[in-house]
Amino acid sequence: PRDAAIDERVLRAARQLLIDRGLRAMSLDAVADIAGVSRSAIYRRWASSDELMLDALDDALGQLPGPDPSVASEAFWREVREGLRVAVAGLSNPMEQDAIQFWLGRLTHQPKLHRRYWERRVQPCRERAINSLRAAAAQGQVINAADADLLVDMLAGLLLYRYFLTPHELRTSETDEQWLDRVVDLGERLLAPAPHSHDAQH
Q1: Which terminus of the chain is more solvent-facing, meaning fewer CB atoms within 10 Å of its CB: N or C?
Q2: 0.85 cut: is pTM over it?
């Protein structure tokens, strides 16, 4: 029978490597040395080093934070800003950066692992954001959430563009806080109902 203690030792070793030295230092030899097991023992449990990395990232990072669909309507835009602030803080975490670069650079070429990353780390957060927009529309805080999925995807693309495609020296004209303020202000101008339309509902 498979020894669960070895699974835990390997995951613990891989997690420690990620925390101490980053994704680039991850190798099966390094994990095997730290865990005190053979490479064959690892391969009996994980089909590839990328599969082990994915489990180690899940173990180290946990679930991505996201907005709470049950937030009170009057706090919706504050909740949006706080959700974005948490997302930006996460993108500043070297391990989260490693995870996204791992996803974009390697998992997109491996359909099975790509889907697993999506289902574990992206889809739950995306669905919470979509549900939050729909709840806000139902409470009159957003004009229309018929295309909530597109709006959430556009926002995710905006974050990836700023923090992964734009060189850091080209992002110094404003702070992250100022940028977040502009993003939320734009969203509110485009999506919030006009005051008279909101009053007409009451």
Answers
A1: N
A2: no
